[in-house]
């Protein structure tokens, strides 16, 4: 079936674009961006560079988060009048932690055909290299910017049996990893940073190991996709407990009581057992200092 302009109604093409490497642009995305009447872009300057690279002359209009409803109201009548529109964001697939959903809903409600044009997404790219045991996961996008809200969200996810997948920016990754350690414990995790770019960095390890990597400051640039594996309660009992307590003692300012309470709650252990172990760890560390 042809994807060119409908005689009466235009179409809305939701077009994925590269997340770093321009070679990931699909042939279909290129054709659609050339054929539509208009490209609605999250940041027109950013998309202009992409279009220039591929020598595409299609006119651009801006479509960004703060003005989604307003812009959608303007675009819908144009599509009803026969113009086809391609929606793109700065990188990856529109409407995944990105603007797009408002226009998609409005188009569909107006009887306009919505055509997804698949391609890169940081989410699927990271998961393809994460090596997860089965294909299930829970995608949560960006965690809340506020610490309290972040910790609350994590606590609500403590029993989730699937890997948790988040987007995160470089300046918040350390705080987020620390929150995960505090609320969910030292889980196995995986990060995918700078995907498809020159300094692509894939790391698997315990949260404490990833924290150490961030703290070493060698590479703090780059956007992240973070996969946090589900808790393994049985394995966390016993000798790991002392290690975990020592880590908290060395790396955080939390009191012995706070640490014991949190670990007991997060790992489903008796509070008095954890408290007794913590007394030993705190005493040892005082002797050493
Ligand atoms: N809709 C986009 C997609 O499908 O990939 C995601 C947009 S969201 C505003 C941007 C976030 O995606 C970044 O903060 C980061 O978490 C992730 N991301 C985008 N590009 C990435 C890359 N090259 N490497 C790692 N993560 C990336």
Characterize this entry briefly.
The chain is of the alpha/beta class and 289 residues long.
Shape: elongated
The hetero compounds bound to this protein are: S-adenosylmethionine
- As a percent range, the share of helical residues equals 40-55%
* Whole-number tally of structural domains: 3
Can you put this structure into words, describing what you see?
It is a single chain. The chain is an alpha/beta fold and 289 residues long. It folds into 3 domains: 11-120, Tetrapyrrole methylase, N-terminal domain (Cobalt-precorrin-4 Transmethylase, domain 1, 3-Layer(aba) Sandwich), CATH 3.40.1010.10; 123-228, 2-Layer Sandwich (Methyltransferase, Cobalt-precorrin-4 Transmethylase, Domain 2); 241-288. The protein is 44% helix and 16% strand. It has 12 helices and 10 strands. It has helices at 27-35, 44-53, 68-80, 101-109, 122-128, 147-156, 173-184, 207-216, 233-236, 239-251, 256-267, 271-288; strands at residues 11-15, 38-41, 60-62, 85-88, 113-117, 138-141, 164-168, 188-193, 201-206, 224-228. Strands 3-2-4-1-5 form a 5-stranded parallel beta sheet, with helices on both faces. β6 (138-141), α6 and β7 form a beta-alpha-beta unit. α3 (68-80) runs parallel beside α4, α10 crosses α12 (271-288) and α11 (256-267) packs across α12. The radius of gyration is 24 Å and the shape is elongated. The model is unreliable at 1-6 (pLDDT under 50). The protein binds S-adenosylmethionine.
């Amino acid at each position: 079936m042809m994807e060119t302009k409908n005689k009466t109604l235009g179409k809305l093409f939701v077009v994925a674009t590269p997340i770093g490497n321009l070679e990931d642009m699909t042939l279909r995305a290129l054709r659609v961006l050339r054929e539509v009447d208009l490209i609605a872009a999250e940041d027109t300057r950013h998309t202009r560079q992409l279009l220039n690279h591929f020598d595409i002359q299609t006119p651009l209009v801006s479509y960004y988060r703060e003005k989604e409803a307003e812009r959608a109201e303007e675009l819908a009548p144009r599509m009803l009048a026969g113009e086809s529109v391609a929606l793109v964001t700065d990188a990856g697939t529109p409407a995944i932690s990105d603007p797009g959903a408002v226009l998609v809903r409005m188009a569909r409600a107006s009887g306009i055909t919505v055509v997804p044009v698949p391609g890169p997404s940081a989410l699927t790219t990271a998961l393809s290299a994460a090596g997860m045991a089965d294909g299930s996961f829970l995608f949560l996008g960006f965690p809340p910017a506020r610490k309290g809200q972040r910790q609350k969200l994590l606590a609500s996810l403590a029993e989730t049996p699937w890997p948790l997948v988040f987007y995160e920016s470089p300046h918040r990754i350390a705080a987020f990893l620390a929150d995960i350690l505090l609320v969910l414990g030292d889980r196995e995790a995986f990060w995918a940073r700078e995907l498809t770019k020159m300094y692509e960095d894939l790391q698997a390890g315990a949260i404490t190991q990833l924290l150490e990597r961030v703290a070493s400051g060698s590479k703090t640039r780059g956007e992240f996709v973070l996969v946090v594996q589900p808790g393994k309660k049985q394995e966390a009992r016993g000798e790991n407990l002392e290690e975990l307590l020592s880590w908290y003692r060395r790396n955080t300012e939390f009191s012995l009581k706070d640490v014991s309470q949190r670990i007991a709650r997060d790992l489903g252990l008796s509070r008095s057992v954890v408290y007794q172990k913590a007394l030993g760890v705190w005493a040892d560390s005082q002797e050493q200092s």
